[in-house]
Design a protein that fits this description.
The structure is a homodimer. Chain A has about 150 residues and is mostly helical. Chain A is built from 6 helices and 2 strands. Chains A and B meet through helix 1, helix 5 and helix 6 of A and helix 1, helix 5 and helix 6 of B. Chain A binds a DNA duplex (30 and 30 nucleotides) through helix 3.
Chain lengths: ~150, ~150
DNA sequence: GGATTGTCGACTAAATCGCTCGACATTGTA
DNA sequence: TACAATGTCGAGCGATTTAGTCGACAATCC
């Protein structure tokens, strides 16, 4: 029952789409993102912290503070966002590029097949930018009324 | 940190490779499989039970009993084995073909990308047979001495 | 009838997921 | 300068899953 993305990646991408939607309009505050994209606010907190650490988001404190994209949406790749939030997407521990992993999973029998699948997956995810995600999101909600009010 | 295969798939495939190696020689007993393929014996028990339920393995009780392939190795696909042991390999709950899933994961934002990746992954895994796995395994151990004695 | 094997289900320890909560830091405004 | 609105950080928690173990039972060969 494993081999499954957690909610982190989805929530995180939703939040970034919201930020992309307001790109260049100054910081958006967390409560707004949470409400409009239906993400538990105190959980979103952690996700934004991670995205900030990895340079996708910049935030300012104080009243009128909030979060905004640290880089243009067109330069943010889905792959990088997911790896930031979910950790490595490698289906087997032994496919991990890094060195810091303690190799708890020795699982490595069918490495040759999975290496191929993993590479293809990463390539595809790398080809998707936040701009494209935003467009897809707009299209999905575009037809009918948005499911949330601004 | 998710999106990772558990040990089940690897252990299960290892066990099937061992059975394929002795195809047509009558049942192989569990303790032997466990020792030769380095799988905890009482855990292997559960994996074999699952593989039997799904028709990959047939077993006989009593002394000189054991397990053997229920179908020719050439007709056993890696995809089916992994889905038997790991459950659905869908990275998102919403990509699941079945109806019985309770949709605890609502995660469905980037469905369009993942659908594509998932389909490619399944196609590749479906193209690998147990025969090929056995050959690869032989090749890997072939050069040097086997890492276990028979 | 006993030894050897498989079968089944209950139990467990550790890790992870999906959160919540509270204390604290920063900063705009009155 | 006070205070209110915001972000930041880390501890903790209930539920679920992983990766097993264990023990009672069933079948079968001798």
């Amino acid at each position: 029952m494993t081999v499954r993305l957690s909610t982190k990646g989805d929530y995180g991408v939703r939040a970034l789409i919201e930020l992309a939607l307001h790109e260049g309009e100054g910081p958006v505050h967390r409560a707004g993102i949470a409400a409009r994209r239906q993400i538990p606010e105190s959980y979103l907190d952690h996700l934004l912290a991670q995205l900030r650490r990895d340079g996708f988001v910049r935030s300012t404190r104080g009243p009128a503070g909030g979060h905004e994209l640290a880089r243009p949406a067109s330069e943010i790749r889905l792959l990088d966002v997911l790896e930031s939030l979910e950790g490595s997407l490698a289906p087997l521990g032994c496919l991990e590029g890094g060195e810091t992993h303690s190799e708890q999973h020795v699982v490595c029998g069918q490495q040759w097949v999975w290496r191929e699948i993993y590479d293809a997956m990463r390539a595809r995810l790398a080809s998707v930018t936040l701009t494209e995600l935003l467009e897809r999101d707009r299209a999905r909600r575009g037809g009918g009324a948005p499911s949330y009010s601004i």
